[in-house]
Design goal:
By secondary structure, the protein is an all-alpha fold. It is globular and about 70 Å long.
Length: 346
């Protein structure tokens, strides 16, 4: 059987029951697909007879050499970045499709997939409008990092982290969905109030990230216009734009409100899997934890660059929390340092 036999709801999170028995399928899967590549019916049978967690993991490993080769050939290391907003929803769609194909209750998974699709739409749109899908576009942090790491070492870094670890991370962060699938398979249950709370929390975090992205975009566009025309756009003050970095709205309370909301999405998904299986923790928390660690490191590097570029950024760091607000730091919008000329905001 491709899905484990669950005797109690807590068994859904037992790694020795739900994962280890199916590891051997990972080695058999490539040959099975290759031998039946021209037979759609056989491929469907392989899909259903393979544990969905294993097939999802296999796909993340399949993408690794593609990311590696394309990035090295083009000397552009944002290949995973271009798929970042899409792959988690691909994996969530896979788990949901598998549930539909095998007759597992899908109400909870269908709801999750809708939210995941909205998450993808928001992140993809924001990446697109910043030029992320333009030919030659690359995250500026990779260019800065290459200044500190020689070419051979950066290639190793690309193999281990950029192309492999990040690809696997985008899979493992969705593993709570596998647990939700198993929970749905173990018992048929209605859509309770708690599911509604978790789904609303996910939706709320996605909206918060969208809101923060919009504020950042508007500020950066206003700064570009100001630098180009020397005229302060409507709704902004010269002092704010002169600082060079956004510190208004949500950004007056958190230095990275979009990152805070983004991380919260996957924490809520993990918590949902714990609630659904009546456990305080489970192994899929590794994905959420790895996501948090990556964001900690990425944010540290981003702020290292910002602090060198903008003189007042270090003071901003003292005033405003990295992800969550903290008291006593002073107004994040620097309103205590100047009284903007109201005419500039007209």
């Amino acid at each position: 059987m491709a899905l484990p036999v669950i005797k109690s709801i807590a068994d859904c999170t037992d790694f020795t029951i739900t994962v280890l028995p199916y590891v051997s399928q990972l080695y058999e899967l490539p040959q099975q697909i290759f031998q039946n590549i021209t037979d759609p019916q056989a491929l469907k049978t392989i899909y259903i007879s393979t544990n969905p967690l294993i097939s999802a993991f296999a796909f993340s490993l399949f993408l690794f050499p593609i990311f590696l080769v394309v990035s090295e050939v083009n000397k552009n290391y944002s290949q995973v970045d271009r798929c970042w907003s899409l792959l988690p929803t691909v994996y969530n769609a896979h788990f949901t499709a598998y549930a539909h194909a095998t007759g597992v209750s899908t109400r909870r998974l269908d709801t999750l997939l809708v939210l995941s699709t909205i998450w993808s739409a928001r992140l993809t749109y924001n990446y697109w409008r910043k030029g992320g899908y333009s030919v030659g576009s690359e995250d500026y942090r990779w260019e800065v990092l290459r200044e500190y790491i020689n070419a051979p070492l950066f290639f190793v870094f690309n193999v281990i982290f950029i192309s492999l670890a990040q690809s696997v991370l985008l899979f493992i962060v969705t593993t709570p969905t596998y647990v939700l699938l198993l929970a749905a398979n173990s018992t048929v249950m209605p859509f309770p109030l708690a599911d509604m709370v978790f789904s609303r929390a996910l939706g709320g975090m996605i909206f918060l990230a969208y809101w923060a992205d919009g504020q950042q975009w508007n500020f950066q566009e206003a700064k570009k216009e100001y630098q180009k025309t020397a005229k302060v756009p409507s709704g902004f003050h010269q002092e704010d734009l002169d600082l060079g970095f956004n510190h208004l709205g949500l950004w007056a309370w958190s230095r990275h409100p979009n990152f805070a909301a983004e991380q919260s999405v996957w924490i809520v998904l993990y918590a949902w899997s714990c609630w659904a299986t009546q456990t305080y923790y489970n192994w899929t928390g590794i994905g959420a934890l790895a996501y948090l660690i990556l964001f900690q490191a990425s944010t540290w590097f981003t702020e290292l660059i910002s602090a060198k570029k903008y003189p007042e950024y270090k003071e901003y760091q003292q005033r405003v929390g990295k992800f969550l607000p903290f008291p006593g730091g002073g107004p994040g919008d620097f309103s205590d340092k100047w009284k903007p000329n109201s005419a500039e905001a007209k």
